[in-house]
Amino acid sequence: MPIFAFTDSEHVHRQLALWHSVIPLKGDSSDDADTLIGSMFSELVRRGLVRDGDDLVITRLASSEEPARTNFITVRTVGDVGH
């Protein structure tokens, strides 16, 4: 099962490329979880990596340097966030 890892850091993107089954993708950061998830889903659908009806487990770990961001884990279905 592939792991899609979105990051806005070029350094982290290069590091993620070294891991087996990880597909690193450049993406913008957002403080709003629904906006972030929607943009990730759009990119994954655009690339043909997922399709409507696919279930995805989404995690987000905030940097300790960014205390205003929230850590979370959720399961969402592609198509349930406006796609």
Shape-level CATH architecture = 3-Layer(aba) Sandwich
CATH topology-level name: Pyruvate Kinase, Chain: A, domain 1
Distance between the termini: 22 Å
Strand order of the largest sheet: 1-2
Largest sheet: 2 strands, parallel
Shape: globular
Instruction: Please indicate the percent range of residues in DSSP E strands (runs of 2 or more).
Output: 25-35%
Number of domains: 1
What oligomeric state do these chains adopt? single chain
* Spatial extent as radius of gyration: 13 Å
* Derived structural class: alpha+beta
Highest CATH level, the class: Alpha Beta
Measured as a percent range, the helix fraction is 25-40%
Order of helices and strands: EHEHEE
**Low-confidence region ranges:** none
Beta strands, count: 4
SS summary, helix count: 2
- Return the average pLDDT rounded to an integer: 82
What would you give as the CATH superfamily?
Answer: Pyruvate kinase, C-terminal domain
Describe the structure.
The chain is an alpha+beta fold and 83 residues long. The chain has one domain: Pyruvate Kinase, Chain: A, domain 1. It contains 2 helices and 4 strands. The protein is globular, with a radius of gyration of 13 Å. The two termini are 22 Å apart. The model has no long low-confidence stretch (mean pLDDT 82).
Explain the layout of strands and helices:
Blueprint: E1 3-7, H1 10-16, E2 22-26, H2 33-46, E3 55-60, E4 72-77
Parallel strand pairs: 1-2
Antiparallel strand pairs: 3-4
